[in-house]
Please model this.
Amino acid sequence: MVKSGTIILNTAARLLMPLQLLFSVFLLLRGHDEPGGGFIAGLVASGAFALYLFAYGVTATKSVLRMVDPRDLIGFGLLLGMISIFPAWFQDQPFLTAQWWTIPGVDFKFSTPLIFDVGVYLAVLGTMLTAIMTLMEVDKDEP
Amino acid sequence: MQLAVLSGFVLAAFAPLFQRWCGERASQALALYPAALALWFLTQLPAVAAGEVLVFTLEWVPSLGISLTFLVDGLSLLFGLLITVIGTFVLIYAGGYLKGHPDLARFHLVLLAFMVSMLGLVLADGLLTLFIFWELTSITSYLLIGFNHSDLEARKSARQGLFVTVAGGLALMAGLVMLGIAGGSWSISELNAMDDLLREHELYTPLLICLLLGAFTKSAQFPFHFWLPNAMAAPTPVSSYLHSATMVKAGIYLLARLQPGLGGTELWVVTLSLVGALTMFTGAFLAIRHTNIKKLLAYSTIMALGTLTMLLGIGTEGALIAFVTFLLAHSLYKGALFMVAGILDHETGTKDVSAMGGLRFAMPVTAVAACVAALSLAGVPPLFGFIGKELMFESVLEAGAWRWLIVLLAFSAAVLTIAVAAIVALKPFFGERRETPRAPHEAPSDMLAGPVVLAGLSLLLGVLPFLAADGVLVAAAGAVAGEPLTFYLSLWHGINLPLIMSLVGLVLGYLVFQRWARIRGRLARLEPVLSRGPEAGYEWLMDAIVRVSEWQTRVLQNGYMRNYILVMVVTLAVLVGYSLLIRHSPQLAIHLDVQFHELIVVALMVMGALVACVSRSRLAAVASVGIMGFCIALIFILFSAPDLGITQLLVETLTVILLILVLFRLPRFAKLSTPLERVRDVAVAGSMGLLIMLLVLTVVDSNQFVPISDYMIANSVPLAHGRNIVNVILVDYRALDTLGEIFVLALAAIGVYAMLKLVAPKPTAKSTKGSAAKEAKDG
Model:
């Protein structure tokens, strides 16, 4: 079932996926102030890949992802989540207290919640991709 | 101090590396660690003997008021010295005993870890710290008993030891928590300083029973004594160290440690002295049935542990002095005897004493050490064991409750112990020479060091008892009594009742030894009775646990998704429905303030649900469930919760994708349920839906708490620098929850992956896969 092979879907997927991914990053970064955030952004990104998967199949999607295995994304996401814990300790503040830094020159608030949110984003994306790709691959194994 | 002790764990982790660097010398190299600690303890002797209590505090979890406090008083120091000194020799001994064993590094690792845990246990001042180390000793003991893990018996014995001690550990935890609540403190030294507060507290009885269960299982008191002889499946250095000199005394240590705060009540005195006396007699009685030298020694250890418990129970000043003296004496001679047993086993290839004889020429040093230690065990002057036994008899004669029963049990146990000592020392080394599986010769020096030094100490302290008394025993007895004591130990107490009892005991004991073979024959006839002992109860209990879990797995985990869902839904509906009706009496005051477009959305949802129920096509059912999801998203957006709306939309989309992927793997649609079952399903589903509706209405109606959202809205920008409160909650206010959730998410992904990729090439149990995919989505 993996490849649909319709031109409309293929073309749409090729055009939409980068846009969706871009949109997901946009949602991720603005999430603290406007609707969005790591969880939603992760779901949007998974949607982008899901579309591509349906259009081109697992092998093609893997070659888009190149070296990145979805399972590594999960681990990396969890790692970022854990990393965001530590800065508070160095400031002698309780576990997980948010730390804020302003980057000079750029009007951008960098913070541990942002690191944490990126971690959530990656973990959600990795989980969804692992689930979908595993399910599709099993289908492929069984003609 | 704490770091010095805990660094042992690090050293343990490096034990395999030591093996590589030092090769055969690894044991000696590692023995430097307990030796250094022993030296440190020795340097503290003068201060502690002068009545000082050394306290070492290290903040651990300051916000919970938990600190890692080590406390060195007489009792801790006595135990600390025993652990480190015997530990040093045991490590050296193990190097010879397990020479060339492929798993020697693993042995070192676990033994060192045990040593550190045991030290932590006797030094800890906090109840929780003590408990953690207590459990660590149970676990390391398990690993050491099961060291020869290819042996079924060893595994079984290890499991038995673990079950008994850990079950006791659970009781102990309950007891310690109650103790902490009753005393309002987690520090043992503070609890001991409270005069009668604990003894008169209403929790005293349950608390004491729990503590005693923990202590009795650990220290192999009747009726939990059976695990200790089985633990002899461990390599002999372990038996010598854990199962005679140190770990089994942890329960005794706990009781002695808490005696100033808890001891002296009628419950304490009667339970401890009776259980102790009974254990003492049981141990000695069961010992002489055996010809296996390790079993003989193990049962005589049970006898000694019983004696110690009994002395604590009697609790007079004399009894406490006898307690510390007997403790020290026992550790010295029993450690030595076990090592001798190991040497005999190692050199002759058998553990059966009746198969050995006349070994005194082949192994003279071992023979001397064995005889000295056995004389101390028998309580013959001028050895230290004699002083211990005299003091024991003296205090038994002073016992308050059940005096004559206890005296009788103590005397017969002493007679039997003398017989055991004679069997252990005389049978293998004297008499005519017998053929053994291996040609015996003297043990290597690293194996001789331990028994020689320990037996030598038994002799030295017997001749010069003031060394032991002034060194540590006075301070130790003072720590157990809770007030400073002064006393002198001496060999000669004049002609009195204890001395006469000793002499009569010696004669009787020798007579028992002479007729040992015949007595064993008689006792063999008792086998059917003895085999119905507590161990049979343990076996029955284990079988029952297995049977019950088999039964409940068969009933609950039957592999049918529909049954799982049915059970979950019915349970939820009954429990929630019950408390909802009883506690909140839901009110159906529905304010019909609904807009027209909202009605349309609701109608769409109802239709979606109906279609999903009656549809014969799975794809159609999934699609109509999807309609419901989108309608919910619409409602979120109508009530201005864009974040929720977006999330719902995305989740719904991805769910449909996942469901479709799963649907392709399902078998053809078939009707499996009877009409009656369908009626039941409708009823269950309907009641669940009704319940949720009532629940939501009740929740909306009730205003029991001030909503926390006001605080969150007010502080979102000033504190968390974010205007999107949903996101602020996720990544800041409730970041720990989110962290937990993404871990759950990862676990679900691993579950899906493992189930689909790692199980088998053949498709099995398809329904479970669908549920996993769902979990991945919901997580």
In short: Residues 551-722 of chain B form one domain. Confidence is low (pLDDT under 50) at residues 764-779 of chain B. The beta strands of chain B are 54-61, 66-72. The CA atoms of residues 308 and 323 of chain B lie 6 Å apart.
